[in-house]
Write a sequence for this structure.
């Protein structure tokens, strides 16, 4: 495969991202709802052989196709993070869902150019569904029957009318962050917890309006950005800065700029 010559991903790279997601899907489905041992990482999060083997399959494919690119992965570390093009991989986003038989776990594949994600895939192996966002090409949703459609966020310009998503309130550990998220939640029409990356797929598809989370790693959010932005949404950290490989892990995703700014005002108020 030829090297990338611009920040807009080629169809060949989009196809490669899908093949990387396919490689992970084959592994995770083989282990899903099986008698699988669960280990605990140093950050006390669970990890399984499925996580490790799925990422190994993803990395092997990338090494064959684009050896000049860097890779940042949750399970097997970083290689060439300072390269112009870097793939960011999360083989199982939502390992707690995976190990409890919940089908709302996903695989995240992102390609970043100079630290900024330009291609993202959110794949749900157990559901057979996939969301693909690539540069200025928009965002596609492919359902379990293989049917594709371009998706858009819904029009919601007020937090009081918004559906707020968050994987868990326990990700906010400081009193300041707990209070900040509480202000957003109390101002929203409806707050729903759980879902991991499915929250962002819902936002891109117009089934939710805001996602506010904290303490994330690049492999948790980089693939989400092209999907949401391609559907017309926007995102930043809690200070309103663009998300990148060097972001602090706080994120606000919203269906539009006005709604995001309203959320930022709630988060930043003393």
């Amino acid at each position: 495969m030829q090297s990338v010559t611009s920040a807009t991903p080629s169809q060949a790279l989009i196809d490669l991202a899908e093949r990387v997601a396919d490689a992970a899907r084959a592994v995770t489905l083989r282990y899903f709802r099986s008698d699988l041992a669960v280990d605990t990482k140093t950050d006390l999060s669970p990890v399984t052989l499925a996580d490790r083997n799925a990422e190994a399959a993803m990395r092997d494919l990338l090494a064959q196709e684009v050896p000049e690119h860097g890779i940042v992965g949750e399970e097997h570390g970083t290689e060439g993070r300072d390269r112009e093009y870097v793939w960011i991989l999360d083989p199982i986003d939502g390992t707690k869902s995976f190990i409890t038989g919940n089908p709302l776990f996903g695989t995240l594949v992102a390609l970043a150019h100079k630290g900024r994600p330009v291609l993202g895939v959110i794949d749900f192996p157990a559901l057979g569904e996939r969301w693909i966002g690539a540069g200025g090409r928009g965002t596609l949703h492919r359902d379990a029957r293989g049917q594709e459609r371009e998706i858009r966020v819904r029009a919601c310009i007020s937090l009081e009318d918004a559906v707020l998503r968050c994987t868990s309130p326990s990700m906010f550990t400081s009193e300041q962050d707990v209070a900040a998220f509480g202000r957003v939640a109390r101002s929203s029409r409806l707050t729903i917890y759980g879902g991991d990356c499915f929250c962002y797929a819902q936002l891109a598809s117009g089934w939710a309006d805001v996602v506010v989370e904290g303490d994330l790693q690049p492999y948790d959010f980089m693939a989400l950005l092209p999907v949401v932005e391609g559907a017309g949404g926007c995102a930043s950290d809690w200070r309103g800065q663009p998300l990148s490989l060097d972001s602090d892990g706080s994120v606000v995703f919203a269906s539009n700029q006005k709604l995001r700014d309203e959320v930022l005002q709630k988060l930043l108020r003393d």
Observations:
- The first helix runs from residue 11 to 31.
- The helical segments are 11-31, 49-65, 95-99, 175-187, 198-205, 218-221, 224-230, 257-268.
